[in-house]
Specification:
The chain is mostly helical. Helix content is 93%, strand content 0%. The chain has helices at residues 2-42, 47-143, 147-198, 205-219.
């Protein structure tokens, strides 16, 4: 039963400490000190007992002063910590604001960089296309002879063409000459034919005799 009572008292004290905190303990300590002081003032104890009670009261006063100093220090520390927290919160706010601005600037810079990269990509594609076309043209050009060789061949072909044209003109002149000669031959042949046609026919005497005999035989 004693253990149960002690346990319940401890539980009650713990609950009171949780509810009251340090301030409640200090108030109770001051109340106890005030009661002891009033008891010491109004008591008729012997000088030895009175001195002992006074010494006890002084010790408790010293403990109260220490507690008050500790509470004051704790309060000052709490105020300083609260001030630091306020400054830290303000710095965090400024830092967050700065970070937001920097983030906005970073986003804008990234957007501009993306736009520039897109333009560079377009230019790179155009350059690549032109380069591919250049290589294709270079391959086609390599399949044909050089300009000097082409000019030399062209000059040679021109010379051959001039020679052929000269030969062609020579043959044309020769053909014209042959045509004229043939025309003259035909004219001379027609003239000769006319002369032959205009001449009297010449008969052979033997043929004439044979003709007369035949006529006589027919008459008889």
């Amino acid at each position: 039963m004693a253990n149960v009572g002690a346990t319940s008292e401890d539980a009650i004290i713990r609950r009171k400490l949780l509810v009251e905190g340090e301030s409640g303990l200090d108030d109770r300590r001051f109340g106890v000190l005030l009661k002891e002081y009033l008891h010491w003032v109004t008591s008729d104890d012997t000088p030895e007992a009175s001195d002992a009670a006074c010494q006890t009261i002084l010790e408790k006063i010293f403990q109260c002063e220490n507690a008050m100093e500790q509470a004051l220090l704790i309060q000052l520390m709490n105020m300083e910590q609260s001030s630091r927290y306020s400054e830290l919160l303000e710095e965090i706010g400024k830092y967050a604001f700065t970070q937001d601005k920097q983030l906005d600037k970073s986003i804008e810079a990234a957007r501009i960089d993306i736009t520039n990269q897109r333009e560079r990509l377009k230019e790179a594609r155009v350059i690549r296309k032109n380069r591919q076309e250049y290589h294709n043209l270079a391959k086609i050009v390599q399949e044909y002879p050089e300009r000097q060789e082409s000019l030399r061949k062209l000059q040679k072909m021109r010379i051959e063409l001039n020679n052929l044209e000269s030969i062609n003109r020579m043959y044309d002149d020769r053909i014209d000459l042959r045509k004229k000669q043939f025309h003259l031959f035909l004219v001379a042949l027609r003239d000769l034919q006319k002369l032959v046609d205009q001449d009297d026919p010449i008969t052979d005497p033997d043929d004439q005799k044979n003709v007369n005999i035949d006529d006589a035989m027919d008459t008889s």
